[in-house]
From TrEMBL:
Residues 29-161 form the DinB-like domain. Coiled coil: none annotated. It comes from the Bacteria. It comes from Pontibacter qinzhouensis. SUPFAM superfamilies: DinB/YfiT-like putative metalloenzymes. This is DinB family protein. InterPro entries: DinB-like (IPR024775), DinB/YfiT-like (IPR034660). Pfam families: DinB_2 (PF12867).
Length: 175
């Protein structure tokens, strides 16, 4: 029989203090956090900003995971983006100035997932269908739509990050 640690997060049971309708969102974010931690733990710093076949760099995905989750949660709270959030958006895809970039970016993503979980726990289910505007154009969505998209978008970029990281780490066949 499988232990709970070998199971994907959604198969480990309900999360305490998490509204029932938001359990899948929380499960997806926790799964993403675990996968990023696992696949990035030995990722070489020198490959972080490489773009094989022109795809987005692993570093971009790590920055974008954090940034987009922050922005979507802001819209779900019915708030406008701050100047700091807009600046961070403009910095996505640009290397950090110094330090261990891989672990710094992974830690930033982990912290953003924690913030998301706090917000999910505090979100009353009665507001899930309330209208929310997205972006400067205030495109129509709902609280639930934004939260589900936050989870879906996070999963999408984790998948892209994992494929790109594998592409970069595979050694070319010997001739």
């Amino acid at each position: 029989m499988a232990t709970t640690q070998n199971l994907e997060v959604w198969l480990r049971g309900t999360l305490p203090d998490m509204p029932p309708y938001l359990q899948p969102v929380a499960h997806a974010l926790l799964q993403a956090r675990e996968e990023v931690q696992f696949y990035m733990q030995n990722f070489p710093e020198e490959l972080l900003w490489e773009r094989p076949a022109g795809v987005a760099a692993v570093g971009f995905h790590l920055q974008h995971l954090t940034g987009v989750l922050d922005r979507l949660l802001t819209y779900a709270r019915d708030e406008a983006l701050t100047p700091q959030q807009l600046e961070a958006l403009g910095q996505e895809g640009k290397p950090l100035e110094a330090g261990e970039q891989v672990q710094t970016l992974v830690q930033q993503f982990h912290a953003q997932v924690e913030k998301a979980l706090v917000q999910l726990r505090k979100t009353p289910e009665e507001i899930l269908l309330e209208q929310r505007g997205v972006g400067r154009a205030k495109l129509p969505s709902t609280v639930l739509g934004l939260l589900v998209h936050a989870a879906e978008h996070t999963q999408r970029h984790v998948g892209q990050l994992l494929v790109t990281s594998k592409m970069l780490q595979v050694k070319a066949p010997e001739a």
